[in-house]
Structure formats: structure tokens, C-alpha cells
Amino acid sequence: MLNKILYISHALEAIVKFFGKIGAWLSIPLIFIIIFDIITRRFFILGSTKIQEMEWHLHTAIFLLALGFAYVKNSHVRIEIIREKYSPILKSIFEILGILFFLVPYTFMIIYYGFDFVSRSYNLNEVSSALTGLSHRWIIKSFIPLGMILLFLAGFSILIKNIAYLGFKFKKDKQNLKILLEKHPEFKETK
Structure pTM? Predict the structure, then answer.
């Protein structure tokens, strides 16, 4: 049963990683846009509001697409000085509690209000407040609920892995625990 649940975890991770890689690839056009903006502002004294807004939009898209990816890859910010003292079992319990009491309510709230935010922007045909800015503001606003959906999926995947780890550990299922530890070394004892 827990192995089937782990399959769901890996499928969710694959989705999150796919969008995270898309976010990473958006760095390339962002670099070229920034270089173009710097050259035209510095040497040709030309400034473009559209170019500058496109930089902001790409920064936003990269951040929101990579948020869940960072969580799945365990590269998000943590207080390691405090966390490293605990056993993997206690770390898993804290992770489960953090996901259930913080990540899930937060992402649900942002997703719920984010869709309303995007819907209003789309219905109003919202454009930039700058006269020469970008139109279709709803496109960038749609990355907010998308990013939170990806973060929720990442959190759900991590939740499943931690529940499976605790299940294997308490059932004393050494074979499945060994397989889990090979795929996810973050559960191994560090002492």
C-alpha cells in the first residue's frame, strides 16, 4: 500500500520538476532582455517600459515556477542549525506538521484568492498602469495560483514520502525502508 502511495509521490514530483525546469529555462530570455535593456539605456539613452515590465514578469514566473521545485529538491531555506540535531523520525513528524498546518492552508488561501485575482484582471482586460506598458496583465497574475498549485503538489509529495518513511519505520519493514533510503537519502541517520 505504501509503495503505491510512493508512486503517487514520484508522479507529483515529476509534474513539479517539469514546471521547475520550464522556469529555469525562462532565465535565458531574461538574461538577454536585461542585457538589451542595459545596453539601450546606457549607450543609446533609450528606455522601454515594456522591456522593464517584461523583466519583472519573467522574474515572477521564474520564482513561482521554481518554488515547488526547490521544495522537492530540498533546497529551500531552513534553519539547519536547529533541525540537524533531531533524528529523521522527528524531522519527518515536524515536516508533516509543517505541511498540514502551514503549507496546505497557505497554498489553499493563495490559490482561492489567486483565481479570483486573475479572473477580475481578465474580465477587466487589465493593462499596465504605465501608458507604454504591457497589456494582458492577467497572464502574469495567473502564475500566482499556478505557482501555489505547484507548491501544494510538492508539499503533498513530501508529505506522502514522510508518511511512508514513518510507516516503514514503525512497521519495521526493512526491505521497503532500504529502498526508500536509497532513493531519498535525506531520511538517513546523520550520526
Answer: 0.88
